[in-house]
Design brief:
single chain, alpha+beta, 48% helix, 26% strand, elongated
Length: 149
């Protein structure tokens, strides 16, 4: 899994840590995750990835399931590419915002329809429950009448 991480120096141990800031879900979708701090030792850090890592440096790190570093590279180019893609062209930026607003509106409408459908289903269930309770009462009445005969 690919992570954006910040190199930190652990003052107690002198070890380098990686604070995992975000992880990639898809190519253009990332999730914020600033809870995890992993030591380079824990990550099976290999010197072949040594980029003169210093405190506060941003890196892209790919970890396998066992938290072994598969790749580690400086995040400078990646950050600059994001700036170029999303922040340098106002028209593109406005289009992006408009598209996102349309997605949100569509999502809101879908949620409203789902809510209405759930409300309708709830009412149907309540009606059926009341009908069943009425039938149950009628059956109890009939049973009592039959017992008294």
């Amino acid at each position: 899994m690919l992570y954006l991480a910040q190199v930190q120096n652990n003052v107690n141990s002198g070890q380098l840590n990686l604070k995992l800031l975000a992880y990639e879900i898809t190519e253009n979708l990332w999730e914020i995750n600033n809870q995890d701090i992993l030591t380079m030792e824990y990550l099976n850090y290999d010197e072949k990835f040594d980029h003169n890592l210093t405190e506060n440096l941003l890196v892209l790190v790919e970890l396998d399931q066992d938290h072994k570093i598969l790749s580690l590279k400086l995040a400078n180019k990646w950050v600059l590419d994001l700036v170029k893609k999303y922040l340098t062209c106002p028209i593109l930026n406005e289009e992006f915002v408009k598209q996102e607003q349309e997605k949100v509106e569509k999502w809101r409408q879908e949620m409203a329809l789902q809510s209405q459908d759930l409300t309708r289903r709830n009412l149907e269930l309540e009606t059926r429950q009341e009908q069943l309770q009425d039938l149950e009462e009628k059956l109890k009445q009939q049973q009592k009448e039959l017992e008294h005969r």
